[in-house]
Amino acid sequence: MRARWGALFAGEVDPLVYAALRIGVATLVLVRIADWTAPLLSLDHHGWVRGLDHAPSDDPAAAPALHMPLLGGLPSAHSTFAAALAWARAPLAVLVLLGLRPRPAALALGVSGYLLMALDASRYFHHLHLLWLSCGLVALTPCDARLSLWPRRLAGAPRWPLTLWRFQALVIYAAAGLAKLDPRWLDGTSLRAIAERYPFEGALWDAGLGAVGHAGMAIAIAAWELALVPLLAWRRTRLVGAALGLALHVVLDSTTMVSTFGASMALFLVTFLPWEVSRAPRPADRTAT
């Protein structure tokens, strides 16, 4: 058990991976919260309110599924407190991007994002949950190299934060795949309903639908997601898993609007590249052996 634990969490990795994750997450936050990106990246389906992340429900006549705020006693989503949280995200993301106290800034950024969602729970988005969760993971990583993607290479960085990133990616794919092991999904009913409500289009969608129909597409998506878990977990197949995972998100992004979800998952897939550092034994070690 101790050896297995050490194989997962002990050792060192190239610190470049943590700098890349820090810069990638900060960039995604700035893209997601900036008003000017809405028309540029076709993210207007969220109906952004200036300075806030929230959007009205899909059906304005329908009652919200969750109460606002999520917990009693929290301020309104349109309060001064909410506005302060919303506007604080940009400078915090810039600090993370530049590597200026990035770990406390990333923690504050994640907390701000989750508080905003708690103030308006009916406007929850999965991709935002993933984005703020990624900020929390950045807060755990040794990513303090400033003003540059390239950290100092005097020593390797600890491996355990990278393992946490990898575990989170496996949880996402496993949860997504297992949730689809439902008769209503596997027979194509749920996918057909989703496609009728949201814009699904593109050559890949049309080709798949023409070849296997909604049921075949639904089964393929579930199998694809579930297959990524063992492929990414096993060291020998990680590169194959990372390539297939990236292909999955390219297909999804080319078929429908998923906001920054695909880019976030691409960052998680980067963690499965061979970042481990193998250190040669010191002369004293070789003498002892």
3D architecture notes:
- The protein is mainly alpha-helical and 289 residues long.
- The protein folds into 2 domains: 13-155, no CATH class; 159-281, no CATH class.
- The chain contains 13 helices and 2 strands.
- It has a two-stranded antiparallel sheet.
- Helix 7 (160-179) packs across helix 10 (203-233) and helix 11 runs antiparallel to helix 12 (261-270).
- Mean pLDDT is 81; it is low at 36-64 and 284-289.
Helix segment tally: 13
Q: DSSP strand (E) fraction?
A: under 5%
Give me the side-by-side strand order of the main sheet. 1-2
Structural class: mainly alpha
How many separate domains make up the residues? 2
The separation of the N and C termini measures: 25 Å
Overall spatial form:
globular
Number of strands: 2
State Rg. Answer: 21 Å
Poorly predicted regions are: 36-64, 284-289
Task: Describe this protein with a few key phrases.
289 residues, mainly alpha, single chain, 1% strand, disordered C terminus
Give a short synopsis of this structure.
This protein has helices spanning 2-9, 16-33, 37-40, 80-98, 102-119, 126-138, 160-179, 183-186, 189-197, 203-233, 238-255, 261-270, 283-288; strands spanning 12-13, 157-158. By secondary structure, it is mainly alpha-helical.
